[in-house]
Hints:
The protein is mostly helical. It has 11 helices and no strands.
Amino acid sequence: xxxxxxxxxxxxxxxxxxLAPLLMGWVSQLRAWLQNRxxxxxxxxxxxxxxxxxxxxVMADTASPLFRFAPYLVFGCMVLASAIVPTFSTExxxxxxxxxxxxxxxxxxxxxxxxxxxxxxxxxxxxxxxRREMFVGFLAEPALLMIFFTSSLIAHSTSLITIVHSLTGSxxxxxxxxxxxxxxxxxxxxxxxxxxxxxxPSTHLELTMIHEALILEYSGRHLALLEWAASLxxxxxSSVGIALFLPWGIxxxxxxxxxxxxxxxxxxxxFSIGILLALIExxxxxxxxxxxxxxxxTAFLLxxxxxxxxxLLGA
Length: 315
């Protein structure tokens, strides 16, 4: 039984590592199609990672061990986050550690270290990106916690496994409180993954970039790890959204047949999220950085309304 769970966990972790760049490439390809462009191809993230891993890393003489260590820690945090979120099944060894508050802590740990590493060299761009990243996190994390609290009130637990079990076995077809939480989660999803309208992942303009400013001084394998970690973060947030708002189809019984059935269903949900993300980015414009507080305050307000809706109405 233990060997079977370890084997299934290995499948889920390996699938996360492989599907994360594919999701990023799928979104980029869809954006290109919607903008009447050919696009780089859905497999371009794999080619970019292969090229970067085969290049030498160049670092400034003033770089401290923190600058060298940060990419490995950020990548490890994103791998852990992707592994503990129940994607294909809830009967996994690491899924038992999928506490919502701990998950927010993992994302916060990665944010702190990448921001410290960006400031370590002392360049203007790195410091600018670090301040903006911490600014976005300061506003986004409370809203994300409110979303988790809304779901935990329904399940009476902050464990994602318990939330999935509760929502899939619930008599309500749709919880009005989760509708508000879902809209709030979409706003947080865009902000935390540096997507339009909060950030543009394909730009290097100093007045607008956030994520790119953080990794501007990295190259070679360190840059490859950070790019892979960014795609894993997008995958992890997509998995959290599926677990909270589309949990139906996740394997709960522990049978091999239902597990095999859950894999294509999860991939379908994942690529549907990619379609939604591409549509949002195509029909939205990049907002000014000074408008981001209003954007994330709206997410926090929606999350709080969702929580109050459940407390007052029980639905």
